[in-house]
Amino acid sequence: MAVLAVAAETSTAHATGAADASAAARPAADTPPTTGQRAADLPAHALVGYLHTSFANGSGYTRLADVPDSWDIIDLAFGEPTSTTSGDIRFALCPRTECPGVETEDEFKAAVKAKQAAGKKVLISIGGQNGQVQLTTTAARDAFVKSVGGIIDRYGLDGLDIDFEGHSLALDNGDTDFRNPTTPAIVNLISAVRTLKGKYGEKFTLTMAPETFFVQLGHQYYGSGPFGGQDPRSGAYLPVIHALRDDLTLLHVQDYNSGPIMGLDEQYHTMGGADFHIAMTDMLLAGFPVAGNKDNVFPALKPSQVAIGLPASTSAGNGHTPPAEVADALNCLTKNADCGGYRPHGSWPELRGLMTWSINWDRYNDWEFQKSFDAYFGG
Predict the structure, then answer these.
(1) Which residue from 319, 321, 331, 215 is spatially nearest to 262, judged by alpha carbons?
(2) What was the pLDDT predicted at 15?
(3) Residues of the chain with pLDDT under 70
(4) Architecture of the domain made up of 23-377
(5) Strands 46-52 vs 73-81: parallel, antiparallel or unpaired
(6) CA angle, 238 as apex, 344 and 223 as ends, to 5°?
(7) What was the pLDDT predicted at 226?
(8) Is there a cis peptide before residue 78, judged by omega within 30 degrees of 0?
(9) What is the pLDDT of residue 14?
(10) CB proximity list for 315: less than 8 A, separation 6 or greater
(11) Cα distances (angstroms) measured from residue 83 to each of 72, 141, 143
């Protein structure tokens, strides 16, 4: 594949290892498109975290029942396919030989019900670093629907988190319009999620955790480009997000394990500081031209549909942001204060909150991420 010198993908984000435009072209920031999706009964500001449920690593195993009440959405990591193109997703609790403290399945199901009784959402997250999913056929699409539905039903879960990374999504040559995708793996994924939403109804919680490479990089590069030669994964999440925006509960892009990304100021921003989160989130909340085309704008999402994704500690992923910098980013995006070098194109007090990889790593780090979230939002 061609190398994108300005925004190279550095590594996949959710690993099971120890470390793991112009203004005229944008919709007005205060008039985002309406969507039919209710906020899935989330609090005004939500804390989202991934729980290492099917594996162990250096952060240690955490039982679902032991996750503190501060966590509003708990993404169970991970459901993975039997093969890349099968669509057949499997999920099981971590083996006792790997996780000596793992709960029994009945205890786990009871913990799911207890979390739901407390107003929390428990989702199955599909993908991660090792779970490459390519729904290249309708048979794979149907297997995905059946197997994911089976996991949701078996454990009584609230919905689905799509955490496709690596080579799960790539655009075929000639697929240049995010509003009308033609790549089978993307068309089939959209269809599968719509089917699941139709099965479970309005309370079905749908979240996504793409990397910046698959979203904001689309401002510069989309797929292989009009003449070929670009990385076909560039911006490849955009048609999925756009097609499902009326069903989407929450998008939390991984603002970590990322190369430099160009913002709406046409400057490159580097992970690890407030400006990166401000610039990346501003793109989602203001909208942005795709592949630099001012006549082809990815529309803004509602602020209630957006959270900022960060690693919980320096051990969890590249691009850890100190709590004070996170607070500056939130102040800038919600209050137009402490904005530093990047000025966003609006102020969005309804910004939903924060996501982190992961609950386990935050526990390992004495709950610094959770404590900072609670302190900022008055939890």
Answers:
(1) 215
(2) 54
(3) 1-40, 379
(4) Alpha-Beta Barrel (3.20)
(5) parallel
(6) 110
(7) 85
(8) yes
(9) 65
(10) 18, 19, 58, 59, 361, 364, 365
(11) 32, 13, 12
pLDDT attached to residue 20: 39
Considering the entire predicted model, what is its pTM? 0.90
- The residue extents of the domains of the chain are 23-377
Tokens of 1: 């594949």
Two structure tokens written together for 37: 């999706």
Pairing outcome for strands 89-90 and 73-81 = antiparallel
How far is residue 90 from each of residues 23, 340, 360, measured CA to CA in Å? 45, 45, 22
φ/ψ region of 93 (left if φ > 0, alpha if ψ in -120 to 50, else beta) reads beta
Rg (CA), the chain: 19
Q: Which two tokens stand for residue 295?
A: 């006549």
Q: What is the pLDDT of residue 40?
A: 57
Token pair 């793409």 is at which residue? 210
Burial (Cβ within 10 Å: 0-12, 13-18, ≥19) of residue 198: exposed
Distance CA(248)–CA(35), nearest Å, equals 9
* Active site members: 165
The 3 state secondary structure assigned to the chain is: CCCCCCCCCCCCCCCCCCCCCCHHHCCCCCCCCCCCCCCCCCCCCEEEEEEECCCCCCCCCCCHHHCCCCCCEEEEEEEEECCCCCCCEECCCCCCCCCCCCCCHHHHHHHHHHHHHCCCEEEEEEECCCCCCCCCCHHHHHHHHHHHHHHHHHHCCCEEEEECCCCCCCCCCCCCCCCCCCCHHHHHHHHHHHHHHHHHCCCCEEEECCEHHHCHHHHCCCCCCCCCCCCCCCCCCHHHHHHCCCCCCEECCECCCCCCEECCCCCEECCCCHHHHHHHHHHHHHCEEECCEEEEEECCCCHHHEEEEEECCCCCCCCCCCHHHHHHHHHHHHHCCCCCCCCCCCCCCCCCEEEEECHHHHHHCCCHHHHHHHHHHCC
